[in-house]
Each structure stands twice: as C-alpha cells, then as structure tokens.
Amino acid sequence: MCQMGGIPVLTVKPWRALFDEKFHVVVGNLPPTQEVTLHSLHQSEDTDYWEAFGHYVSDAQGRVTVFKDPCVGGTYEGVEPMGLLWSMRPIPGSRPELRLRKKEVHTPMVVHISVYRGHMSQGFGEQVALASVITERWYMAPGVRKVDITEGGVTGTLFLPPGPGPFPGVLDMWGGGGGLVEYRAALLASHGFAAMALLYVFPDQNKNATIGYPYFEAAFRLLQDHPLVAADRIALLGLSLGVTVVLSITAYSEAVKPRCCVCISGSHACRIGATQSVEETSQGIHKKYAKARTDDENRIIWRDVLLPIPEDIDLKVEMGRITCPLLLVVGQDDQNWAAVESADDMKQMMERAGNSHLLTTLSYPGAGHLIEPPYGPHCRACTFVLQPGQQRVVMLFGGLTKPHAVAQEDSWEKILGFLQEHLCHSVKPHMQSRL
Questions:
Q1: CATH of segment(s) 145-423
Q2: Residue 326 backbone phi and psi in degrees, to 5
Q3: DSSP secondary structure string, 185-254?
Q4: Residue 13, phi then psi, degrees to nearest 5
Q5: Rounded CA gap, 262 and 239, in Å?
Q6: Confidence class of residue 283 from pLDDT cuts 50, 70 and 90?
Q7: What is the distance between the alpha carbons of residues 110 and 113, in angstroms, rounded to a whole number?
Q8: Which top CATH class is 9-138?
C-alpha cells in the first residue's frame, strides 16, 4: 500500500496519440481515499484557454484509474476515460461563444493534465499541482503527406496516407461557415484514406457566385486522376451545407459518381440546381430568414428556415436518383438545420423509389448540429457569419455535452467502418493509427 507523504505519480498513455485515440490517465502513490481533482488545460491557436476537470477519490491502493473509476463531480461525471477532453470549455472570463477548432494540422493539440489535492472547481492557476504531464493530440499520423491544391480553379488540401497506394479517396466538404477546414481530412488520411478538404465557400462573395457543379466536378476529377488515388473508390463526405452539395451532385451530376456518401447534419430540402451556384442556393435559404427564431439568450435558431419540408419534388433533391450507399448522421437536438425532419423525408422518398436499401441512418438523442470527430469539445453555440461581409451573429447549434460526445465517438467509428466497407474491398480495417 502507498505510504502517506509519497510523491504522487501521474501518467498518461499514450502521451502522444491521434486525436481520435483514447488515452489512459492514472494517478498513483496517493494516500488511500484521497480526494483529488484531475484538470486539463489547452491554449488554442486563438490564444484562448480551455479546461475540464473531474473529482476523484483514490482507492485502497492509493490509485485513481480514470478508465474504470467514476468521476464524482466536475465538468463530467461517471466513468469517462476521455472526459478530460470532450468536456473542455473556455475558462471563466473568456470571450463569449467560442468554438475550438484546429487550424494548423501539422502541429499537435497540446493538453496539460494536472492533479490537485482536494475537490476543486476553480482557481487552478493559483494552486500548485501535485503532478503534471503534457500530452499531444495529432490529426496527422507520421508519414501523412499534406499537398496544397490550386489546380484547375480548385482550391483545397489533399492528405495522402503513407505508403505506395493507390488509396481510396474522400472528398470532404464542411458547411456554410466557409474557409478551408482541414482537420477531419487529415484524420481520415491517418486512417488510410486519400482525403481532400475542399474550399467552396470563399470570403469573396463574387467568387462564390461562380461555385457550382463545374467546380465540384473538377475537384472530384482531380481526386480521381491523382496517381495515388483509386479512381473507382471515392466517397463524398459533407456536413451541414456540405450535405446539400453532396446530395445534389450525387443525384444530378453526370460527372460525379461516388462509391458511397456520408452526410452529417444536413438536408435535401435546399438542392443546388445544375446551373446554380452555391451562393444562389444560400441566398434562397437566407430569404427565409424571417422564419428563424431566437432563444432567451438571443441566439439564432436556424432549423425552422427549412420547415416544413416541401412536398414539391422540384424543391428538394430527388432521393430516388441516389444509386450508391448513403450514411446519414443526425443529432436529434440539432437547432441549426432540420436534420431530423429531413432524414425522415429522405427515408420516405427512398422507400417510395425502391432504393431505401442503400440508406443507413444514425440518429442520436441529445446531440446537436456540429457532430465532429470524437473527443473534441461540444459547441452548443458560437459566433457565426451568415454571409460574407455581414455582421457576426450567435448561432445556436444545439446538443447536450455528454450525449453529443457519445454521438461523436459512435458516429466516427461507424463512419470509418462505412467507408472501409464500401471503399476498401479486402483491405483490413484500420481503426487506430498509434503515433
């Protein structure tokens, strides 16, 4: 048994890991039944500090083992091996309505984990920790190559796994917030997929007026033609507005024939016409802005803009035209898009068309709109620019922290499994890539 007055030992294994890989946190050499607080701290690339903390009581051997011991209070509760990551929130006094996103994927997310005597809920910077360690969370596994794409009018970033290839490909599209978001594509490459993060909502509104089917077709063709990509094994992946793109071009473009599609928190009820730009579609949605509500904190609830789901087939993607496997991921507390109602209508449309055997739906109680790779902090609301050049607003995305964390972990594992099933043929599943 550990003796009173020993020096506590804190270990995190692996201390360097992929972002979606679990770690094991253990505190040893404590007195039996000692109350302690485990605390995580991260400074974002925007210089904001994020933290999480959990209250524990050491066992008879003077140990706290996070993957099996219950947290009795803090930013999370219960047996939660990754609670020190997914329950992170801005420290008191931070700027309001922040969202934590990794911009520089070639560097790790550095997290400081410390253990303190007693059950603390504040003032961590004013106390001396019993022990501390630094951990690194990476989106890019060793050997993953990052290639900037500015070819044929297409702007994006291609991430290539290590090895000779050819690799199955994924064209990855985020939502209406715009910009080039790379971290999910980098993580996909760490799992064996050649993933291209595509920029298609630009800060320049004039540029957006030119982004339509030809742009996405050129991006798909560019990925197909890459010598390290298997041309006949490419998937489309979209979130939010990215789902509108994925469903529209899959249903109507003669040049884009994906092997499968993954759609997260989106809708078919705002399709992009063959001669339309994404900007025109977005403007059509924004014309319905009066249907948006605000909550008691003046945060915009956008989901009503698409309701009711239209019955007119000309006002939505004709789901009977989908001829490849389709995975829908839905948060039942999505306050940004009418994802639940859209998923129900898509299922009904596919049943009537006789292609519902292609559809798999994952629906998560208590999850919000921004369902991302696992262990990232839940973002219930954050500042958002509805259209380039407009003033920032606060958008409510929805979700509760624990159910949302469950949705992110479960859906990511199933997304990887879905992509492997439909893209990798006899390739063995590559569910973890240790650093």
A1: 3.40.50.1820
A2: -130, 125
A3: HHHHHTTT-EEEEE--S-S-HHHHTT-BHHHHHHHHHHHHHSTTEEEEEEEEEEETHHHHHHHHHHHH-S
A4: -130, 130
A5: 9
A6: confident
A7: 10
A8: mainly beta
Catalytic residue among 240, 248, 265, 267: 240
Decide if 348 contacts 315 (C-beta within 8 A).
Answer: no
DSSP 405: H
Mean pLDDT along residues 170-196: 95
Distance between CA atoms of 158 and 163, rounded to whole angstroms?
A: 15
pLDDT at 116 over 50: yes
Known active-site residue 334: yes
pTM, two decimal places? 0.94
Res. 244 pLDDT band, cuts 50 70 90: very high
Round to whole Å and give the CA distance between 322 and 263.
13
List 40, 334, 378, 433, catalytic entry: 334
Q: What is the DSSP letter of 45?
A: T
* Residues ≥6 apart with Cβ < 8 Å to 254: none
Catalytic residue from among 55, 369, 404, 422: 369
- As a whole number of angstroms, the distance between CA 211 and CA 208 comes to 5
281: left (phi over 0), alpha (psi -120 to 50) or beta: alpha
112 is catalytic: no
> Is 363 an annotated catalytic residue?
no
- Decide if 104 contacts 1 (C-beta within 8 A): no
CA dihedral 146→151→155→161, nearest 10 degrees, is -20
308 upstream amide cis, omega within 30 of 0: yes
The DSSP symbol for 12 reads E
* Domain residue spans of the chain: 9-138, 145-423
Looking at residue 200, its amino acid is Y
